[in-house]
Design a protein that fits this description.
Length: 735
Amino acid sequence: MKSIANLSPEISRRHFLGVSGTLVLGACLPVRGAFAQAQAAAAFEPNLFLAIDGAGTVRVTAHRSEMGQGIRTALAQVVADELDADWSRVEVTQAEGDEKYGNQNTDGSVSILLNYDRLRATGASARLMLRQAAADRWGVNVESVSAVNHKVIHAATGRRLDYGELAADAAQLPVPEDTPQKNEAEHRYIGKPVVHVDAGDIARGQGTFGADYRMPNMATAVVVRCPWLGGGVKAIANPPSGEPGLISIEALPPAPSAGPIFAPLGGVAVVAEDTWTAIRIAQGLEIEWTDSPNRSFDSEALRQSLREAVMKPGTPVPGSGKGDVDAAFAEGGTEVSAIYETSFLAHAPMEPPVAVAAVSESGCVVHAPLQDPQSARGLIAGYLGIDPGSVSVTPTLLGGAFGRKSKPDFALEAVELSKRLKRPVRVQWLREDDIRHDYYHAAAVQHHRAVVDDEGKPKAWLQRSAFPSITTVFAAQAAAPAPFELEQGFSNLPYAVENQRMESAGLRPGVRIGWLRSVCNVFHGFSANVFADELAAAVGRDPIEHRLAMIPESGKLQQPGMPAPEGHELDFGRLREVIKRVRKLAEWDRPRPEGVGLGFAVHHSFRSYVATVLEASMVNGRPRVSNAYVALDCGTYVNSDTCAAQMEGAVVFGLSLALYGDIGMKDGAVVQSNFHDYPMLRIAEAPATQVELVPAQGRLPAGVGEPGVPPVAPALVNALYAATGTRHRALPIRA
């Protein structure tokens, strides 16, 4: 098995599909409609996910972006399993951005959820067509032949043919509908550990990331941007000229207040023949910037406004009012109340944003680490005022992303400069650019207040959340949190409460807000889990026993606000199951040494269930996590190793946010600049992690990349409380 994502740009997908003797299958949602279209389509249509050539090589087109999460491997596993292909003869090629593939946004942990059924159908239909081709050649009934490991076999006579020998004949057959698929017990690749198809290239330094891509006559640009959002270039003091390697210094206008979406920030671009010359000259520029309304933005002032917002009535979540909260509080009893705070966060992927663009009279070609090449294609076409058919956008490997590279502002910078200079241009962001000019995860404050009975069960629960909504990026007047943001761990709390009210508030920030891994679940999962722990502590009850007592034994959550899709409602039984599994995995009841505490948290997000236990203590005045235990129920999963790795990565990611995640703004500018003041968890700080996967049991597939993050920070806070008696309600944790 190998990847052919890094083909020479001269070898086009269209040319590849034009090879004779190739069986090709396309699949677009809905599946049945796609198969009907495929019957009339020639074998050389480019809207394809599967191709088999005369040599028997199976090529799967991955229409999602690979950022280390293994999606290119997983998509191929699904197709190859239903095809019953020999994995060593399967290759993966990367699709360009094109609407023919359907949704290409590699975001929100939905790649398998959206594509599992149609890719299974693609593989199963091809397998049946190969069987039919062999049956026709042998003059036997198709039911008498089977397809096994890249060969079609007629058991009665012992005859067999390789898939490659049958590809041309199969290509002439109509694509069947409603093809029978394998049952779970028959799967050879789905649900099994498979090494990522890109692993070898990456380990050998042969993978093509954004900064690796080269085009003939390519220049490199580094952009100096205004420290505050909306500022433009007023003057450049003594701009250099005539320096060896310097091509041009270009002033870029500031981003408009409204549209286009993800417009470049503007600034001064230094374009040079090599990267170092561009960096060196850019760092020496003295630029005077124009003012903007964001010049005085201060993150601490915003945080204070958020604190004030949650202490007064907000906008109710539609349908969230149950019972009479005010009357229940008036009756009195044991009351627990707390405010929880989280900071602005930067994505800080290991690979900063970078893009290569070539604009010509015939159109535009872009190669970049983009999470959504299709929407980027549309934005680039709109930016240039040309037809999308004249724009080609191909994702390279992404060196991490976490949501940052779903915003193609950096690609638009490369497009603008290539248009001006009439040659290919690579725009390279530095780490400082990445930290200081990100789309930041919103700072947030939550207020939880409850009155509990003698067992700690809440008789009334009031919850408020305040944060700058991501909708502020899309609309100049937007402020209030969107329903989909509240559905992320706020309006879908799983606890049975007779009297409950949910309210929210939003404020416009002076920076760009963007999606970050797990999105609003980060702060909603934090506050809800720590508050649940505080309810247990208020009555001296075991945190896990207390949590189980608040969750119904069975049934599904009737969620207010934005309901979950059918089949993906929060299932109380599944939530309880991951709690019990992680309790056993962590040996929760085993005594720990003095000063060592266990903390528990559980969260349902991206249609998956994750329960986490951390074992923590204080060492030299700083939190130290020695062990992490995670139970994951993501329904049907494709690659078990990838699922475990995502949970391990989520622990590292979540601990980084909990211990170090703090982006501050003063006078409109971001205070931090690099990993020395916005650090990540180091190897020596990473805990030993055990992961248990709940068997698929035929359930719908759900998310894996993001749902492991939300329980980590609250589990740490709860562990530190168990170890020291000190409760932390603000992140990052400050000793």
